[in-house]
Design goal:
single chain, 162 residues, alpha+beta
């Protein structure tokens, strides 16, 4: 598995970023955070995930390990492939997405192109409880009351939607 690449951004295409590592150009589909890291820099380090299929090897790049871990977790959800998982991780910060999962906020995921109501609910259902707790912007872990409200769609759960 190719877990990390460090190299010089050599170009961009519709498919992602070309990263020159020791004279070899790797085409990496990246999140906006990873793409922003490559702007104007001489050298960039990307956390990566190598997706292996019968007919292709595809590299996905992330700004940090947190984005990659969430991406890998999303791949474990039934019906989620790497392109949809990349779209989800690209939509918001990984900590915000983890919080939405913890609060049962499926609507947050429905706003992402390519994700319908059933898929959004499946993401929340299958990942809830399996991801590490995330701190909210105040620095507090979500309370059990917040989690309960998020599950039932109470006012608190709606207050955290974008």
């Amino acid at each position: 598995m190719i877990s990390r690449l460090r190299g010089v951004p050599a170009g961009r295409s519709a498919d992602g970023l070309v990263l020159d590592v020791g004279g070899v150009g790797y085409l990496v589909a990246v999140t906006p955070g990873a793409l922003a890291r490559s702007d104007g820099t001489r050298e960039v380090t990307l956390e990566t995930y190598l997706h292996v299929r019968e007919d292709a090897l595809q590299l996905y790049g992330f700004a940090d390990a947190d984005e990659r871990e969430l991406f890998v977790s999303l791949l474990g959800v039934s019906g989620i492939g790497p392109k949809v998982a990349l779209a989800v991780v690209s939509g918001s910060a990984a900590s915000e997405l983890r919080r939405a999962i913890a609060l049962g906020d499926a609507a947050r995921f429905q706003a992402i192109p390519g994700i319908g109501k059933k898929t959004a609910e499946r993401i929340v259902l299958e990942l809830k409880g399996s991801l590490p707790e995330t701190l909210d912007p105040r620095g507090d872990a979500p309370s059990s009351a917040e989690l309960d409200e998020g599950i039932t769609g109470g006012e608190l759960g709606r207050a955290h939607r974008p």
